[in-house]
């Protein structure tokens, strides 16, 4: 059996860089290979999107497994893989999995009260998108919470290496709740400058989540302002912007993770 | 270790009646007991909601496992359990799982385009709630799909047995996509009678899903009218009402499951 492992956040999973991964190509995941007792082929987003046929090669005569983080259907990329397989007459079986899309419920906010999920990307000097903020606004107007998936940059090339065609990659970057909150506050300021009434303010109740599902998972509930400084440790992080109304039971759950006064430290979920 | 198994749909999971379950109390799940090699205590919704302290009894000195279908945080009941455990100083660990809330993506509709989830309950002669329909309307206005969780009735007593205090239970009932679609069409008719413009019509594109995640999973895409007659087989069923706009890639995925002309038969997901 040929086993591909996808490395990226397209599926809304609690994706993390496989330990021992070498970001030069061909890359392998040693820890996972030991676990599965098989050779694994690391497929970055680029490969999955541009070389899908390579993944499906020989899948009609032998088994091919494609492992992702989270649930496979968080990503259009995977629907595309299924459509290609179908056209090639290759049957498939999907094994579903937990995803940040539902595991986020561990913070105490009810899943059925989440509106459309948004993604917050790293801003650059020239590219500072604010469009996702409209979805947050719409969600809040409908009393729904917003799950914000935070950007992951892996296998990035510097402009110089890109131009010179050097396959040298920058170290991976994972957006933290602090960075996301700071970008959000900048958008709030920009809206005020434009004379608009921002749907979110420094005082909006938010929840920062880190390494959901892992033993050292951390959750912190506080204002958007507090999210700028709360220390949640390493990646992967997610941020929730609560809707207008928070149910008393939700509030009681959030209180388990509330940021202590005069502190930017959050409580661990099992620090009870 | 004491192991409780919850039997109900409160968690939005693809819940099904454990084989070998005896609905008289105390009930056991033989198949699961063989699998886990432990005695299991079947906890119905009533017990979980009313006797939570019984579940947490001795959890401070020994391990107690509480198994649910789907992800634990689909249900306020489980947040309540965690709050009780916290107050009792009992630490806990949550193992997340796939849930119909994200596994529904297997039909090809994108998860981030789902709005608020609704529940459709069995109507009685005297109780025919239509309120959930407003949420479907709001979702469609926002271009979002609606996942409808269909009612499950287990451990029900007939009025006579209830009055006479007899612990005799009716056979379990699981709402089918057909039943849900028929109730929806009745609501549409009621709205027309009241001179309202229904947010959904006989022609609205819907998706019926059955036994998601199981090998004999079935998915059927068609109009709400077709959902009244499509044969998806045994429980558990879920229904999706699509939002106004369906992305071309979503449409291509749905076409894999489209109901053949002049037939109420759906294609199996692996009937390629």
UniProtKB/TrEMBL annotation, chains A, B:
> What is the protein's given name?
diphthine methyl ester synthase
Question: What EC number is given for this enzyme?
Answer: 2.1.1.314
Q: Which family does it belong to?
A: Belongs to the diphthine synthase family.
Instruction: Report the residue ranges that make up the Tetrapyrrole methylase domain in this protein.
Output: 46-226
Q: Which residues form a coiled coil?
A: none
Catalysed reactions listed for this entry = 2-[(3S)-amino-3-carboxypropyl]-L-histidyl-[translation elongation factor 2] + 4 S-adenosyl-L-methionine = diphthine methyl ester-[translation elongation factor 2] + 4 S-adenosyl-L-homocysteine + 3 H(+)
Tell me what gene encodes this.
DPH5
GO BP: any one term: methylation
- SUPFAM superfamilies in the record: Tetrapyrrole methylase
NCBIfam families from the entry? dph5
Q: Which UniProt keywords apply?
A: Methyltransferase, S-adenosyl-L-methionine, Transferase
Record's signal peptide:
none
The pathway this protein participates in, as annotated, is: Protein modification; peptidyl-diphthamide biosynthesis
Question: Which branch of life, at top level?
Answer: Eukaryota
